[in-house]
Specification:
Elements (H helix, E strand, L loop, with lengths): L2 H12 L29 H17 L6 E4 L4 E2 L8 E2 L3 E5 L10 E2 H4 L5 E5 L5 H16 L3 E5 L9 E7 L2 E4 L8 E3 L4 E8 L4 E7 L9 H67 L1
Parallel strand pairs: 2-5, 6-7
Antiparallel strand pairs: 1-4, 2-3, 4-6, 7-8, 8-9, 10-11, 11-12
């Protein structure tokens, strides 16, 4: 089993199960703004982190038509009140159709709230992310889990998560390396430092530690596997060529041995004939 096939097997093994909700995919509801004058993202550090993280989650959950991944678009969570709105960096919703893409996400129309929300800390929103949004996401909206992460390596490490348990907000306990496990998504999340970009990248992995690769990383894996297959094919061809040459040499040796035996028999016959002639003359 090759690397990608092995991952696809694990992907199905660890994919969460959940009910399909009765809501309706809604692209846009009149009267609810779907954009504002705020730039996105806050910095290039955040832009790189958000793009890579979205790519990983989107590709991982692409096998399920009822997982929707949102990326910095508005979530309206109370019908009739346009002030009840948030715009998480990344959010994951189970039980709703992946497509069509939405301008905004309306929880009452879709029939579901996100199961997990991720915010990447910036100077402008860090205090809200650390405090106010914990309550908003987990209590007001009904999100199951909320995570915050600081992507800038030049700032102190901040990676925290909370989940809602029986109506209470509980902080998720990290493992020895600082990783947090999402029960909702059935995934581990750990960060790694990219010295080139100076970004502290939050990376997801399967429960057994298998990393979820980016599109670029997967393409490299495909290229490596293709190269390995070509090398294996070349080795098989070389082995086949050697077998053919060995068989040819064996056939040549057998033919030579046969010819030598035939010549020896002919010489012996001729010698016997000469001996007979000499004996008759005597």
């Amino acid at each position: 089993m090759d690397i990608l096939t092995d991952f696809e097997f694990k992907q199905r093994k660890y994919m969460p199960t959940f009910p399909i909700v009765n809501g309706k995919p809604t692209i846009y509801i009149e009267g609810y703004p779907y954009e504002d004058d705020k730039p996105m993202p806050a910095t290039e550090f955040h832009g790189l982190q958000i793009n890579i993280f979205y790519d990983q989650l989107f590709r991982y959950f692409r096998i399920n038509d009822y997982v929707h991944i949102g990326n910095d678009n508005f979530i309206y969570y109370e019908e009739g009140d346009i002030t009840k709105v948030v715009a998480p960096d990344i959010f994951v919703v189970f039980g709703v159709k992946k497509y069509p893409l939405r301008r905004s996400f309306y929880t009452w129309s879709e029939g579901a709230a996100p199961v997990a929300v991720f915010e990447f800390l910036s100077d402008a929103t860090a205090d809200q992310d650390r405090h106010e949004k914990v309550e908003v996401y987990l209590q007001e909206m009904g999100v199951q889990e909320f995570f915050i992460h600081q992507p800038e390596m030049d700032k102190p490490v901040e990676f925290f998560g909370w989940r809602r348990v029986s109506g209470d907000i509980v902080e998720i306990v990290p493992d020895a390396s600082g990783g947090l496990f999402s029960e909702a998504l059935n995934l581990w999340f750990r960060w790694e430092e990219d010295q080139t970009t100076r970004v502290r990248l939050l990376r997801p992995s399967l429960p057994d530690g298998t990393p979820i690769n980016t599109s670029v990383e997967e393409e490299h894996l495909r290229e490596q596997e293709q190269q390995l297959r070509l090398e294996e094919q070349q080795l098989r061809l070389e082995e086949q060529h050697k077998r053919v040459e060995a068989e040819a040499r064996a056939e040549e040796a057998e033919r030579t041995a046969k010819e030598e035996a035939e010549r020896r028999q002919a010489l012996e016959a001729e010698l016997e004939h000469l001996r007979t002639q000499i004996a008759n003359r005597s």
